[in-house]
């Protein structure tokens, strides 16, 4: 990885890296550990696209939950609560791209 990637969150659940090389989009990579989930949040004023490239999991958007796997591309509309669950024994890796800067409102459901 180039020097523009930096860790923005890291704990027992995951590692999240952002890339700071763009001015209007934020590319992000998440490595979600087995049997863990993201905290879940929504963006006010931001759309986001998730690209799953390793592993399998469950994605929640508002009240809907569905399976995700390598190759899935999931758009998340502005204001939609979203969360990713890794119920497998392997790390689930996905990229996300959102407009603007990182600003989320954590709202577990």
Task: Write up this protein.
- With 109 residues, the chain is mainly beta.
- 0% of the residues lie in helices and 57% in strands.
- The chain has one domain (5-100): Jelly Rolls, CATH 2.60.120.
- The protein has no helices and 12 strands.
- It has a 6-stranded antiparallel sheet with strand order 1-2-3-11-6-9, with no helix packed on it.
- It is globular.
- Residues 104-109 have low confidence and may be disordered.
Classify the beta-strand content into a percent band.
Answer: over 45%
Task: State mean pLDDT (0 to 100 scale).
Answer: 91
CATH superfamily, by name, is Jelly Rolls
Main CATH class: Mainly Beta
Q: In the CATH scheme, what's the topology name? A: Jelly Rolls
| Major beta sheet, strand line-up | 1-2-3-11-6-9
Please identify the oligomeric state. single chain
Largest sheet: 6 strands, antiparallel
Radius of gyration: 13 Å
Number of domain units: 1
Mass-distribution shape: globular
Give the SSE string: EEEEEEEEEEEE
């Amino acid at each position: 990885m180039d020097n523009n990637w930096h860790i923005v969150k890291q704990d027992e659940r995951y590692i999240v890296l952002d890339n700071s090389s763009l001015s209007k989009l934020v590319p992000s990579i998440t490595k979600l550990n087995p049997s863990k989930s993201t905290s879940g949040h929504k963006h006010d004023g931001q759309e986001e696209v998730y690209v799953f490239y390793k592993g399998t999991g469950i994605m929640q958007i508002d009240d809907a939950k569905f399976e995700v796997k390598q190759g899935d591309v999931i758009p998340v509309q502005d204001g939609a609560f979203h969360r990713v669950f890794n119920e497998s024994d392997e790390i689930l890796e996905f990229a996300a791209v959102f407009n603007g800067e990182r600003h989320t409102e954590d709202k577990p459901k």
